[in-house]
Amino acid sequence: MTAAAKTDARDLTALNWLVTGGCGFIGRSLIAELMARGVPMGRIRVLDNLAVGSIADLEELAPALTDADWSETASGIGLLVGDILDADRAAAAARGADILVHLAACTGVPGSVENPMFDCRTNVVGTLNCLEAARHGGARRFVFASSGAPLGLVDPPIHEKVVPRPISPYGASKLAGEAYCSAYHHCFGVEAVALRFGNVYGPLSTHKNSVVAKFIRRALAGETLEIYGDGHATRDYIFASDIADAVIRAATTAGAGGEVFQIATARETTVLEIAERLKAVLAARGIAGVEIAFSPPRQGDMPRNYSDTTKARQMLGWQSRMTLDEGLAVTADAFLARRAAS
User: Fold this and answer.
1) Which of 61, 111, 116, 221 is deepest in the core (most CB within 10 A)?
2) Are 205 and 331 in contact (CB under 8 A)?
3) What φ, ψ does residue 104 adopt, rounded to 5°?
4) 184 counts as catalytic
5) pLDDT tens-digit readout, 121-165
6) Angle at the Cα of 239 (from 235 to 241), degrees rounded to 5?
7) Of 170, 180, 237, 306, which residue is the catalytic one?
8) Residue 208 burial class via C-beta count within 10 angstroms: exposed 0-12, middle 13-18, buried 19 and up
């Protein structure tokens, strides 16, 4: 790790963090990590339209204080309920923020294929609104959640030098977001960093429709695990705490502004292997007899996808730490604990 890639815990606690989509899975995972590293609750603010996550979800971490000002001594996290398509609300949320982490988005390929216009408005215009809010609000750093989807059909491992050729509206909208981040860095001095996340999973993913969360929910409900295609499609599955660490490093590492990073494990895993590993994890916890079924492949899905994370390791001093087997076990235990408590 280079000296420039080091982060300082004291710096984290002195910064005001705005997290768009902060009531969602990745947002709450990031907030939990910030709090674990000593960031006061009152230095964390969330902008969320509550379309997916809820106030109750956020309050599993800390009390939510509606429209609260920044304060080191606050008794909770500031929550502004609003949509990133509302430019005025985004601007109000960003006032006083040092770091703007932009996670709010339409996520996933199927929804973008079904309604490409809504995907575009949210992921392109919404991102532009947040960049404008960061620009005029004086945020030091803007961290944008992207994915491997902008790159399209390329032979993995994917990396930052691949020419993007998206094959889905979702990939196109995320590529537009990356492009606006680059433009705002060069034209307006907004230190925007784009992180291309792998397939994120973890304990707080109960509302997610991603593979791991969906498979666990279906298994606990006694339903079949549905795989689209023959199960040999591959993805790079990364645990939420590793994503949170990458976001924090991207927000605080000198020289990262204007860059794009692949954030994943650099390992390729088939969907069928995920299903089989989860079956074993759940069987060890008394959930046996889970079956697998195959359906036709979905339009826009990439057959193979995993990342080369060399650049993130060299510039951010970051690499994933959680193994897949450990991460699946932790995630399954969290889902089981939530079911037992309900």
Assistant:
1) 61
2) yes
3) -60, 130
4) no
5) 999 999 999 999 999 999 999 999 999 999 998 999 999 999 999
6) 150
7) 170
8) buried
